[in-house]
Amino acid sequence: MLGGTDAKQYIATSGKNLHTRLEGNPSFVFTLIHKFNDPHAEPIIPDHDIVILSDEAHRINNGTLAQNMVRMLPTASRLGFTGTPLFSYDNITERTFGGYVSVYDFATAVEDGATVPLFYENRSDLLEIDNPEINDELAEAVEAADVDENQREKLERDLAREYHVITSEKRLDKIARDFVRHYSGIWECGKAMFISVDKVTAARMHELVQKYWAEEIAEQEAALKHDTQQEAQERQRKIDWMRETEMCLVVSEEQNEIATFAKWGIDIAPHRKKMATRELDKEFRDADNPFRVVFVCAMWLTGFDVKPLAAMYFDKPMKAHTLMQAIARANRVAEGKSNGLIVDYIGVVKALRQALSDYTRDPDEGRGGDPVLDKDELLARIYELLAAAETFLDDCGFSLKELMAAGEFERLALVKDGADAVSGSDETRKRYGIMARELFKYFKFVEKGDVDGNAWARHDAIDAIYKLLTRRRDTADTTDIMVKLQQIIDEYIDVRETGDKGESRFDISQIDWNLLHLEFEKAKQKNLLMGELRDVIENRLVKALRDNPHRADFYERYQKIIDEYNQEQDRASIEATFEKLMKLSGDLSHEEQRFVREGFINERQLAVFDMLYKDSLTKDELVQVKELARGLVDKIQERLAQMTRWTEKPETRAEVDTIIRNELYRLLPASYPDESIAAYRAEIYEYFYSMAA
Question: How many CA atoms lie within 13 A of 403 on its CB side?
């Protein structure tokens, strides 16, 4: 749409129609370059300006059709757009469109945060596999090849030795073993793509990987017997992930492919059925979908963005812009993704360096930074972050080395001391969390052998403190958490049952605050205890505000307490804050029982009553509004019980809104003016809508 106008009316329907449109003075004309198909078309030289905006300027604006366009519109100005890297030599795009108006390259995109950095790892040298010399002839023959059987035979004839080296069983077997070990070693990094020289080789690699994947699962299960409890939990998590991981082959279809693949002992039919009946592209883009590894040769290498794709394994000769476009699959930004990883089995490093040297960040001022960094830089960043985290803990008064050297039982207490040390303020706790999360992101891309044992031990110690700080607490009962936290107040409170789902509440008036103060003074990990209490109160506040939006004053009161706590970090302020939070928690418990004191059956009736309440109500009007709140909630809940996903359908949303409107007009006291009812109606509707979300 253009300014509310349907763009279809501006699309040229044929070459002749295009010429007719251009002879006039249209605001816009949309066309594919293929409609400039008449080399003898009469030139158009209007008395007004024509600007040609060309997409895919690197590819479609330099051939015969482009020449036809220039001849037809000799006075037009041209502006080209391309997402393909530009090269410093033989730059057709620049010669066609003139100088660059703007260049946005890999390095700039990383600086802006539009893409993540890419790290490169050469595993062909590590495996000592026999790779052929990747010359231009070989690279050009296969870099974009999605070859069929006839093309494959020609490829084998022309590049006999090189092709057979790349596709030999022994070589593929060694690579498949290494892929399984490598990817299962970085299993938390994200999804993976394996690129083979052709379709058959991609299918063969898929088969080999399945075999070694099953063997790796068996080895992991056998290792469980020798693990400590903590190690066993982590290993079992990895085994579960490996068992649920799905790997798929994605290649284009060709004639007689069943017979072609059968020659190699591969049944392509199940793969083809999966490609035809499932939306594999959508599944692969979904970070939570267990389809995590795809084997390709040409499909999905360009123009297919997958944010969760973190690792690309190259076993196909590629060069120039095709290689640059392919590696860009792994640099998309995604939650929890710090970088992408390029793993090289074929020796594309030479072609990659050439492409990077040809690629220009600024054609007038010189080359830009490499978009792909050596994996050594990733490891250097890890050691840098480990040192920074250890120094930060030291500054907070805690020794990471002491935690690493501790025994199993002593370790538990020291982890709490570490968490307490970084919980001195919201700022220090936040800084530690940021530092730890950054470290964990990078560790997702390394195997056990990439860094030394001391680095892994430091990682595990930092992780233990982080997990204690961020563990989830499902309980909303302050009594339970207080009893758990070193029995500080349980002996000074009167615990009783409310009769509401068996939950316990405590009577705030029964607490002896002098004794509580003395008990808190004895607590060793005061900051951690404060964090525990805050987490519980915040969870309760979320529930309380969800049940009744008119409790916002409790949140404001909590925020004021925390702001004061963060401003003055001394012993007295910590103890005073603890008592204030305990009183707030007690008052919140008292508020949560108000619906009973007001004569309601549940929280929702009280919430609707609070929305309708005003100070000027008479005693009779108060009774009338309470009765309206009870009846309205019961009526809505009875109707909602008969509906499925009512918020998703206009008719069910309208029905709920109508119930609210009718009941308000029918039962509200006369002191409520008609013009005020719309606001009450909207607030009550929004309340039930948000509860259903």
Answer: 25
